[in-house]
Amino acid sequence: xxxxxxxxxxxxxxxxxxxxxxxxxxxxxxxxxxxxxxxxxxxxxxxxxxxxxxxxxxxxxxxxxxxxxxxxxxxxxxxxxxxxxxxxxxxxxxxxxxxxxxxxxxxxxxxxxxxxxxxxxxxxxxxxxxxxxxxxxxxxxxxxxxxxxxxxxxxxxxxxxxxxxxxxxxxxxxxxxxxxxxxxxxxxxxxxxxxxxxxxxxxxxxxxxxxxxxxxxxxxxxxxxxxxxxxxxxxxxxxxxxxxxxxxxxxxxxxxxxxxxxxxxxxxxxxxxxxxxxxxxxxxxxxxxxxxxxxxxxxxxxxxxxxxxxxxxxxxxxxxxxxxxxxxxxxxxxxxxxxxxxxxxxxxxxxxxxxxxxxxxxxxxxxxxxxxxxxxxxxxxxxxxxxxxxxxxxxxxxxxxxxxxxxxxxxxxxxxxxxxxxxxxxxxxxxxxxxxxxxxxxxxxxxxxxxxxxxxxxxxxxxxx
Length: 465
Ligand code: SF4
Known about the structure:
Helix 3 (160-168) links the parallel strand 7 (146-150) and strand 8 (174-179). The protein contains 16 helices and 18 strands. Strands 5, 7, 8, 9, 10, 11, 13, 14, 15, 16, 17 and 18 form a 12-stranded mixed beta sheet that branches. It has a 4-stranded antiparallel beta sheet with strand order 1-2-3-4. The chain has a domain at 7-66 and 415-464. The chain is globular and about 70 Å long. The protein is 30% helix and 22% strand. The protein binds iron/sulfur cluster. Iron/sulfur cluster binds at residues 81-82, 84-88, 90-91, 424-425, 440, 443.
C-alpha cells in the first residue's frame, strides 16, 4: 500500500498565518523533524517546522503537571481560544511573569520590535493607569511571582522612579526592569539609584550579540559600546542582571556559546534568556522562510557550543513545557556546577515531594551545604533547590545565594506560524493591558494590540455569524 512520507503523531488547532482564522493542524514527524501541517480554505496549505528533535518534543508532554490557576479570571469563554483573552476561564496557567508596559515610547526604533515602539509612537501611561495595572496583577495573583516593568523603553518615562516606588509598594516577589540599557550605559548615577531597589530587583537587559552587523540588523544601531558600558556599571553595583538574546537564524546563532561564557564571567549576570524571534510587530530584516529558529535548535546549539551543560541540564519547564526550557548552574568563582541534572523529573511534577537526586559529587554537595545560613542539612538544600527549579526566577529560596546562581532559559513565543491552541493555553508570560485584561504575551502581539483590535472584532463577528 502507498504510505504517507511522515508519521502522524497528533492533531491540534492552529491559525492561518495570513488571516489568523482557526484551522485544523496535524503534527507529523518527517526527516527526523517535527512539522505542523495546516490548511486554510482561503490561503491554502502551510507546512511549518516546529522542532528539530523528535525525542525532546515528545518528552515535553511528560513534564505537564496540574495547572496552577490565578485567583480570578478576567473574561468569559465565549468565542473560543485564542479570541477570548483574558485571562479567560479556559486558560490553563496563572501568570508566572506579568509584563507591565508603562510606555509605548522608546529611545530606539529597532527593526525587530514586537511592540512597534519608537521615540514618537503612542504615549506614556499615567501613574494612575500604571498603579491600576499593578493592582490588577495583584488581584489576579495575590503575591505575583515576577512583574516586569517594560515598554517601549521604560527608562524614558518621565516618572520612571515613581513607577518603581509604586511597584515596590505592592506585594510582588520579584521585580524586573526590561531595558535596552542605553540609560544604564550613559548615566552611572541612574544605576546607583536603581541599585537601591535590590534585593528582589533585576535588570532584564537587551544584549543580542557582540557583532556590529547583527546589532544593526536587530536594533538599527551599533550598540556594542552601550552593551559593554552597561555591563560595566551593573557589575560595579552588582545589580542582578539577565542578558536577553533575540535569536535570528544565521545572524547571531553562532554566538550562543560565546555569550554564555561571557555571561558567566560577569559579576552581575545571573543568567541568559534566549528568545527566537517571534514574528510580530515590526520585523524589517527577517525572512520567514530562512530566519525562523526553533526552541530545539537553541537547545542543541547550547549543547554543541558549550561544554558546561549536558542534555539532562536543559529541561522543559512544567508550567509551560512547549515554550520554556530551563537549566541552572551554581557559579562559584571560576567553577560552574550544573544543577538541573540533580533533579528527579518526577519530583518536579508532584508538589508533595521534595527529594532531589544527588549525583555522587561530594564537592558540590559540600559547596551547597556551605551556602546555607540556616538549616545546614541535606534536606534544606533539597527544598531550596526544588523551589528555584520553577518557571522563571521563582527565587523563593531565602537561604540560597542568588549571586551564585546562573540560569539559562530558552523562551519560544508562539506566533501565527507555529500557533498551537493546546500549547497557548499553558502560556504563563502575560501582559496586563491598559484595559486591565491579562493577556498571554503571544496572543497580545497577534490580536490584542491597538492596531489589531479592529480585525479581532471582525474575526469574532464571523464566529458568531
Ligand atoms: S489563550 Fe488563554 S486566555 Fe486567551 S482565549 Fe485561549 S485560553 Fe483564553
